[in-house]
Amino acid sequence: MSSSTVPNLVLQANNLNYAAMMFIRCYCYIVIPTGTIGHLLSVYVFTRPSLCSNSCSRYFLAASIVGLAHTVYVLPMRMIQSAFVDTDPGAYSVIFCKITWLCLNSLRGSGFWLIVVTSIDRYLCSSSSTNTRAWSNIRVANRVIPLIIIVLFTAYVHVPVFFRIDIIPATQKPICYPPGPPGTYRIILSYFNLVVLGLSPSLLMLIFGLLTLRNVERSKQLIVAPTTNAPNAIHRKTNTHMIRMLIVQVFVYCITGLTFSVALIYTAINASRPKTIFEVAQENMINATVGMMSTVGPCLSFYLFTLSSGLFRKELKNLFSGIHNFVDHSSAVANTTNTNR
Length: 341
Description:
There is one protein chain. The chain is 79% helix and 1% strand. The protein is an all-alpha fold. A two-stranded antiparallel ribbon has the order 1-2. A hairpin with a 6-residue loop joins strand 1 (166-167) and strand 2. Residues 38-305 form the G-protein coupled receptors family 1 profile domain.
């Protein structure tokens, strides 16, 4: 490599690293406020009487709460660590390094796996078997949700054990490496994340999503007498809206999850290959883009719910109508008080 080529590679690498930093900043500046507001509205909607008795709604509520934690904790931490220079608190505190990456990985996994169990719940609910449908209920949901979160945090209990502060050879600066400390553990963690965060949840969501659609199509072919039972009709309508919301969620999670899996495979395969500074910057840019886009499902689910379900939009309209009526009533009372004076 000629001496004139090296400065060019360094300049191009710096430009790519800066572009990755700016992308993370802009993404976080947009998603953190909009995602936080959206999740708070989702929590309100899924606790309404028309939805709170539905098991799928309970899973969506849990996913929204985990998504809220993802939005207000994971994204700001990723922005602090990756979108600015020398601002990572984990580079100066080993406790912070260990706890932060335990929470980051566990929360990300919890969001994916809650959608997986939601897919399973809709498959059970849409089954023609009464015994199978019986497993789709609030009591099961209330037990499965904390179990999923506990299992995910337990699955990443090795992170506090192996994560540590390393020194970057080129700059002699401390760093808490996001993919784990260099060596065998990083490779193992890459494949572990590939299974836990990438391939497994994406494939399971896809499989149970397709099975649910098959059950729905079969139920449409059954010839049944029209029912005059209003509660049953409302229940079926609610389930239909839940399936619509789930299909959109599964589509987004599968696309982002499989893309994330491909990036993990690429990183793991090329982990031991010598790279130029420009190739390292290219990988950083790819990882920044894919990593941020993998948060679309957990952080922006409210907007997917709004687009896919009329029932969800109806509950939102009721909320905004109530706020509008309250403001009008307060204004009228204030005007009346001023007039009486």
